[in-house]
Amino acid sequence: MIFRAFVLLSVGVFVAADVTVYAPGSGSLASGWENWSWSSTLDFASTAGPGAVEAISVNTTAWGALSTFAETAFNNNYAGLRFDISGAQPDVSVYFSSSTDSDASTSLPLASMSTVVNTTAFTTVTIDFSNLPGNEGVLATDSWNLINFQGEIVVEPLFLSAEPLAGNLLAVTSQGDVDFSQVSATLNGAKVTLSLSETYSPWDTPAQTITYFTLNTPLSAGSLVIAAGANTTFSYTIPALQYGTINIANTKNISPTIYGVNFPTDADYIKLLGVTLNRWGGNAVTAYNPDGAFTNAGNDWFFENRVSSPEANPFLQFVSDAGSKSLFTVPALDWVSKDSTSYSYPRTVYPDQQSYDPFNSDAGDGLLPNGSWVTPSPQANVYTPWNISLAAAMLEAMPVKPDIITVDNEIEIASSTHQDMHPDPMGYDEELARVAAPSTCAWWFYWTSEIGYTDNAAHNNQDFLPWFLAQMNKASAQAGKRLLDYLDIHYYFAPDTSANDAAAKALRLRMTRSWWGMILLSSYTSRSCKANVMPPTDPDYLDESWIGTSIPPQWTEPNPNAIWLIPRMQQLIQQFYPGTKLSISEWDSTDDTDITGGLVTVDSLGIFGVNGLDQATYWSQPDQLGPVGLAYWLYRGNGTYFGDKSVQVNLADNSQDVLGVYASTSDGVKVTMVIVNKDVVPVNLAISNIPAGKYFLRHFGGDAGVAKWQTTIDIAANSNFVIPSYTAVFFQQQ
Ligand SMILES: *[C@@H]1O[C@H](CO)[C@@H](O)[C@H](O)[C@H]1NC(C)=O
Ligand SMILES: *[C@@H]1O[C@H](CO)[C@@H](O)[C@H](O)[C@H]1NC(C)=O
Ligand SMILES: *[C@@H]1O[C@H](CO)[C@@H](O)[C@H](O)[C@H]1NC(C)=O
Ligand SMILES: *[C@@H]1O[C@H](CO)[C@@H](O)[C@H](O)[C@H]1NC(C)=O
Ligand SMILES: *[C@@H]1O[C@H](CO)[C@@H](O)[C@H](O)[C@H]1NC(C)=O
Ligand SMILES: *[C@@H]1O[C@H](CO)[C@@H](O)[C@H](O)[C@H]1NC(C)=O
Ligand SMILES: *[C@@H]1O[C@H](CO)[C@@H](O)[C@H](O)[C@H]1NC(C)=O
Questions:
Q1: Ligand 6: distance of its center to the CA of 387 in Å?
Q2: Which of 251, 245, 322, 209 shows the shortest CA–CA distance to 704?
Q3: Average pLDDT value for the chain
């Protein structure tokens, strides 16, 4: 429903002067207030109301609200809230909430404040905080910063989707009070009997519900038509069966720390998504000064100092409180931020820069109009010296110690990300001297340095990572102990999927093959090895980017048009520094909001497990309820985990472009599976050896949309599974 209201707000106060939220004639909210409305169309200078007095006009859809955010939180030390309102008996409720801790007051219906509100005049309404309307008592003490006017929530009953799922289910999503007796289905022209098994509404997406129906006959290839009332039908063609098998006798341990993210928000986030490793990293931490928790954004934001949020110690504390592990980056350049306000390139000193911070017009980007860097001013203007003993002292002083430490971040490109601190290009020797990791940013810098090929030439024509591993191996031998536990790299898919059209989505979903592939090499030292490469299961997946077509002549990597990242790195380690673990502390799906980004994440987490990757953290913090967050929830949500041993899966078809099937077990008996259908049509799978029994099922995607759907199902012996298009499914034997 739509409501229309004209509102004038003021907060009365007995401590200080009244605070005005909105004054007619201003055309906008008062200074210190922001529009945080949702699902609404608003006009802050409407004169359509009585007397043509300027007011805010609001039309909301279900769940929408006019919401005003106070930059300074208010409390019940104010006397109340006064506003003028006009409308055709608008069914509005007012409530107060806090964006910092998500607390909300009781919802106060306008009808409990005035019954005379009408379209012919504005009615003045006052909410007394010490005696809330409707005998709701006193407004609780809290740091309120949002005043919300919410329209009546009337939801039209509607069937939104109905899809085949697993062996014999229909998954029906709906809104409002629909009549489920209207749902019927025919399979290849014959009516099937349906029984309603469960209606489920996830606690964190309450506006949506899913209802599962069980068919009295298994889903099979052919035409499925689901009718939901007279005018709504959903039709599918279920394809022919694809065959596969699992072998629970053949298992391989999955490293527990592959389910990591960068910068989780808090302990609840970690627990609800089941995050196992939490990285404190990225460009800003290179300048982290524990003495004051200052940092500098570098080239990401006008080389400005600021206070780090969160600070290191509270971060390590909440990670530990959540029972999870931390991966902590220690700065390794010669400087860290000295305060929260300085910046490297003031306009007053360098008047001729390309751009300036829109929020601080004096802070520039350090670039001259012709693209060259300005010569940096002395580092001490912005930074304070940093060295290895200060780093050791920082770690020593930490009340909660990090589980794993990396030495800085993408330091090989410091001459651009931190041009002000380190203007000279970093070469092989300096990087080795500073870094034990090396958290290298991308494919290009795995094999060379910023200095360029003269640097490769100066190092026996060896590519960077093999050289780095060999040096660390040598140094470890000399020291008589292992000096590097993890080879840490960053990996960002190189194909361009930015168009996000059908072709780009399909490309995004198949490029996960660059994680794995197969590589059979006798040695990594010479190009002639190319002849030895005969990938048996992923024939020649060449990267669908510049990497797949160009071979920089100086590189000595075998098969450099294919990435095969995990096996390639494992082989490199095997050859140059055996026993080192492999870590990927930054990677992403290329789209955090599109369903295909979520499916890429599901597929990637499955691939990490099968291929023995040791640890990984997603860049950056996936939205808990977005497609990428749900990929973590699928494997690990709220205490229900994918198994810790990967079970062998064989599929008859070479369908890895559009399908991922991952099986696991923890006890060697019960099976947990994840299947991700990356195709735009359903897939119909017959996988032998899946034990019959009761299974817990979770899924997201497809027409059912991005939500935490779950139920319990029975799987019969030899049953086949239908997975809707663009859907990821988890099922765990109970
Ligand atoms: C108010 O904010 C909402 C989203 O928060 C936005 O959609 C809307 O356009 C804004 N309205 C005005 C008039 O600024
Ligand atoms: C709200 O809807 C009314 C009636 O359709 C319309 O006159 C008014 O302009 C709308 N207000 C806004 C802000 O869109
Ligand atoms: C409409 O609202 C005005 C202002 O509150 C009030 O004076 C008037 O009596 C109301 N009219 C009706 C018909 O309720
Ligand atoms: C179906 O559509 C017809 C015509 O479009 C309409 O008259 C009828 O009310 C609709 N029935 C339902 C159940 O929505
Ligand atoms: C850019 O301009 C600066 C200052 O005029 C000059 O020193 C520098 O050489 C120029 N760079 C290039 C690449 O032309
Ligand atoms: C690091 O800096 C501190 C403070 O300036 C100094 O006391 C210390 O000797 C330095 N350590 C090294 C290894 O240079
Ligand atoms: C998590 O699981 C617990 C125990 O099964 C349950 O009580 C709780 O409601 C769940 N929380 C969420 C947010 O799903």
A1: 6
A2: 209
A3: 90
Ligand nearest the Cα atom of residue 117? 3
Alpha carbons 211 and 216: distance in angstroms, whole number: 16
Ligand 5 in reach of 375 Cβ (< 6 A): no
Probe residue for ligand 2, chosen from 43, 44, 59 as the CB with the greatest number of ligand atoms within 8 Å: 59
Report, as an integer, the average pLDDT of 459-476: 96
Residue 714 and residue 166: Cα distance in Å, rounded? 10
Which of 575, 563, 505 has the alpha carbon at shortest distance from 538?
Answer: 563
Share of the chain above pLDDT 90, in %: 72
Of 2-11, 68-77, 220-229, 360-369, minimum mean pLDDT range: 2-11
- Where in the chain are the domains? 2-151, 158-241, 256-437
How much is the pTM? 0.81
Q: Looking at the domain 2-151, which fold is it?
A: Jelly Rolls (2.60.120)
User: Nearest C-alpha to atom 6 of ligand 7 is from which residue?
Assistant: 638
What's the confidence (pLDDT) of residue 520?
A: 41
Centroid of ligand 7 to alpha carbon of 551 (angstroms): 51
Q: How far is CA 590 from CA 493, 617, 636, 644, in A?
A: 7, 15, 22, 27
| CATH class, 158-241 region | mainly beta
pLDDT of 221 higher than 60? yes
Q: What is the pLDDT of residues 108-163, one digit of tens each?
A: 999 999 999 988 999 999 999 989 999 999 999 888 999 999 987 777 899 999 99
Determine the distance separating the centroid of ligand 4 and the alpha carbon of 231, expressed in angstroms. Answer: 6
Residue 619 has pLDDT above 60, yes or no: yes
Give the C-alpha separation, 88 to 5, whole Å. 8
Whether 229 is in the pocket of ligand 4, judged by its Cβ within 6 Å, is: yes
| Distance from residue 591's CA to the centre of ligand 7 (Å) | 28
Question: Could you please report the per-residue DSSP string of 123-168?
Answer: EEEEEETTSBTTTTBSPPPS-EEEEEEEE------EEEEEEEEBTT
Instruction: State how far the Cα of 84 lies from the Cα of 86, in Å rounded to an integer.
Output: 7
Ligand lying nearest the CA atom of residue 268: 7
What local confidence, expressed as pLDDT, does residue 530 receive?
Answer: 32
Q: Which residues pair with 728 in a beta bridge?
A: 676, 700
Using the mean position of ligand 3's atoms as its centre, give its distance from the Cα of residue 50 in Å: 11
Q: Is 393 in the pocket of ligand 6 (CB under 6 A)?
A: no
User: Which residue's CA is the nearest one to ligand 7's atom 1?
Assistant: 638
The protein residue with its alpha carbon nearest to ligand 4, atom 4, reads 231
Q: What average pLDDT score do residues 506-512 get?
A: 97
Q: Which pLDDT score is estimated for 7?
A: 52
Instruction: Look at residue 518 in the predicted model and tell me its pLDDT.
Output: 52
DSSP 347-379: TTT----S-EETTEEEEE-SB-TTSPBPPPPPG
Whether the predicted pLDDT of 223 surpasses 80: yes
| Ligand 7 pocket residue status of 638, Cβ below 6 Å | yes
User: Any residues with Cβ below 6 Å from ligand 2, and which?
Assistant: 4, 41-43, 48, 57, 59
Choice from 333, 386, 390, 396 to test ligand 6 binding pocket (greatest atom count within 8 A of CB): 390
Decide: 141 in ligand 3 pocket, CB within 6 A.
no
| CB of 114 closer than 6 angstroms to any ligand 3 atom | no
CB crowding 658-679: b at 16 or more within 10 Å, else e: bbbbbbbbbeeebbbbbbbbbb
Residue 17 confidence (pLDDT): 60
pLDDT of res. 102 = 79
Query: Cα separation of 67 and 77, whole Å?
Result: 21
pLDDT of the residue at 527: 29
The CATH fold assigned to 256-437 is TIM Barrel (3.20.20)
Return the minimum-mean-pLDDT range out of 68-77, 217-226, 385-394, 455-464.
68-77
Ligand 7 binding pocket mutation candidate from 632, 638, 708 (most atoms within 8 A of CB): 638
The whole-angstrom separation of Cα 729 and Cα 67 is 37
Q: Is 83 exposed, middle or buried (0-12, 13-18, 19+ CB in 10 A)?
A: buried
